[in-house]
Every structure is written in C-alpha cells, then in structure tokens.
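Box 3.1 A note on notation
Throughout this textbook, protein chains are presented in two layers. The first layer is the amino acid sequence; the second is a token string describing backbone geometry. Keep the layers aligned when reading.
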Amino acid sequence: MKMKTRKEERPNTTIILISLAYDNSSAELNHLSRKFAKTGGKAVVSKDRSEEKSQKNKKSLKLTSTTKATQPKNPDRTTIGVGEVVTITSNRPVKWTNSSPDLAKMKVVTSTKAVLTAYDKAGQTSIVASAGEDSATISFTIIQPEKLAIEIIPGSPIIHKKGRPGCGWYGQMYIQPSAVNFYNIQISELDSKAVGEGSLSSFTGMRHGNYPNGRSHWLNLGDYDSKLGSYSKNNRDTINLSIDLPKRKDGYPEGYVYTPIQWQWKVNTMKNIHDFPLEKQEHWIYKDGSIKTSKAGHSETAKL
C-alpha cells in the first residue's frame, strides 16, 4: 500500500488530502478519501453526497382516507357515523396501528391500505402508520344518531273525510345529524299505549302498533338527504286519527290524545340496542271540528 499526502495552503484554511491506493488491482479503491476543512478553529467533515441525495428523494409519509358512503359529498371527512366504513391509504409501505380497537375495527389489507369500520360507540380513534423513524396519524370522530325526525312526504295527500273530524298524513322518517351517513344501522319502533282526555279519552290504553313481538321489524337504512339525514325509501309512516263525534250547539267537544313513541337503533352487525329520545304522536280536536295531528316535530291540520 502506498500513501501520498499533499498539503494546500489557503487563507485561514488548511486542507489535507490523504489518498490510499493498493497495488493489488483486485482490491483497488478508487475513492477512499476524506476531506478535512479547518476554519476558525473548528473542524468540519463534509457529508456524503449520496446520503444527502437519498434523504432529499425520500417521500414524506402521507395518509389519506375515503368513506365508503358517497354522501355526504365529502368522502375525505374524518367525522363518521357509527357503522361507517373508511379506507385509509399510505403513500409508502407502513405498519398500521389502531389506537382504540374498542371503538372501531381495523383490517389491514396491504402495507399501504387499511379499512376501518366504526362500532356503535361514540368517541375518537387514531390510525397510526409507521415506516422506520417516520410516522403519520389520522384521527376519526365517531358519532351516534342524535334524534329521529319526520317530514311529510312531498306530494302526498292529507288523509281526511269531508264532514268527519279527522286528520292524517304520510311521513318519512330521518335519522340525524345529516353530517354523516347512518346507512349501516337499523331502526325499530316499540309498541306503546295512548293516553287521552276530553272527547278523546276513549283512546286511553289503545296500543299504537299492535306488534306481535312488542316491536316493529328492524328497518334497514340506505338512502340519504343532505339536509334531513339518513332514511329508507321503502318505509312510510302513517300518522292519522279519525273519529265520529256528535256536534253540539256550541261545537264539537274538544279533546287530546298522545302516544309516547320509543324508537331504537342498532348497528347491523351488532347486538347492542340503543334508544332514540322519546317522541310523541299527538292529536287535538277543536270546537270547529278540525283536528291537528303531530309526530316528531311535524304537524298537519284538517278542517271539516
């Protein structure tokens, strides 16, 4: 082995180049050199250019998410409803971790894709993707249904027989809030008994649904309205009361009847059953014979 040294003088800088070369051609080293620079009393070792280039070309770790539901029209949203499914992708191969497996199930599809399915609890879970010393996190807020609302079906008629006190309408039920899609839940109505007074006291104790098992069948949701929320086109609720009452000199005898309505929900793949806030179906009869019918916040009135 031969060693050659060469000293170069520059103002305030001394550079020493040391080159090593082996006579053995099979072990020849073409670029075994180190460069030392000394400036201001401090020694600096220059970085390996190939390492700098590798770091520069390395992609920063990035995660993206897409909800299975195409509505609402922001599939990259990170607030999701119970039962919703989200696909998470990474721009580099990673190791996946779910911070809250009690709130959502994570299925690793590949090193760059995982699928998250929310359970029936509200809360927040974070998906962490790790690649060596790099990591990225995406967090999801899971919300439960808050309430059930009913709106009259557009274009549907008012149920009323002329000359007879009565009023009814056809309603569509919606699950809210509408910020998420509850397509993966089912709803059911429990049977209940009416409470009446005045001219409608005879309705007291009358069952609302007369369901064989004390509840309606479980209804699947699959439709969505951006303002009103999740619903099913296959379901139509009839809200109606009609009664024969003799008219007195001072008009029809007034009365009131209501039925407490308990709706429940559950995620399709789970057994846990949850209550919606209690709603009322209500009916009023007035002296002029008109009847007002109301349920879950929507009312219609029919006159004789």
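The CA atoms of residues 183 and 222 lie 5 Å apart. The chain is about 5% helix and 50% strand.
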